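Example 9 (inverse folding). The structure is encoded as follows.
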């Protein structure tokens, strides 16, 4: 299975494209690039913590290593066509190639990514709904200040025919790109400066995968504390 650190170089061309779109907007925004299964999403939202305005969004589909543009959204409707043309002009230069050299992150960030992988792999292909790709997560998000890794399994959780046989498990990691003060919210814990959040509300017969995650979290905490 591919290590998460190997996925980031493949996303770099999309980050560069988002930078160009950012420069074309007249407002200050916060950007993110996300990978979820075979979908890549670029987003620009308001930079103010109290603003959730979506100024730009672009969705691509990965077909083998080729990239297909799915849609482009612009909050300013008069720029919709302009951004569509702009993105299409750059489409030929986009690919998803995981054979590139690894992304340049600090040794600290790379270590946190390895710890997250060690935990997340415990439930990879563990049960129904655990067929994540690429890598061990259902979503990987590159933000301006942090990397977010999500492994979410809600298989049959909304089915009335599976009231006693469902998965409702969520594992999330928040890895800061620069040293930061750790402030934990509800249900969060930390390994060093990496925050993680885990819960498993699966039916009783589907708890084993979550138990493996919990066990590995404690192993990684102990290992980290020993340096």
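The amino acid assigned to each position is listed next.
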């Amino acid at each position: 299975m591919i290590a998460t650190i190997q996925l980031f170089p493949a996303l770099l061309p999309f980050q560069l494209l988002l930078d160009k779109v950012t420069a074309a907007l007249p407002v200050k925004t916060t950007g993110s690039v996300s990978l979820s299964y075979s979908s890549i999403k670029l987003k620009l939202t308001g930079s103010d913590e109290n603003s959730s305005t979506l100024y730009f969004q672009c969705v691509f589909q990965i077909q083998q290593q080729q990239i297909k543009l799915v849609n482009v959204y612009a909050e300013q409707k008069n720029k919709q066509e302009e951004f569509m043309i702009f993105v299409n002009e750059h489409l030929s230069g986009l690919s998803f190639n995981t054979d590139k050299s690894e992304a340049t992150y600090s040794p600290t960030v790379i270590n946190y990514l390895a710890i997250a992988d060690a935990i997340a792999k415990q439930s990879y292909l563990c049960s129904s709904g655990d067929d994540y790709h690429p890598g061990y997560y259902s979503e990987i998000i590159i933000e301006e200040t942090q990397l977010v890794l999500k492994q979410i399994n809600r298989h049959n959780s909304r089915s009335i025919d599976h009231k006693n046989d469902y998965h409702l498990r969520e594992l999330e990691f928040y890895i800061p790109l620069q040293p930061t003060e750790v402030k934990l919210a509800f249900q969060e814990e930390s390994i060093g400066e990496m925050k993680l959040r885990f819960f498993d509300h699966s039916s009783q017969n589907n708890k084993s995968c979550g138990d493996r995650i919990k066990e590995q979290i404690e192993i990684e905490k102990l290992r980290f504390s020993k340096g």
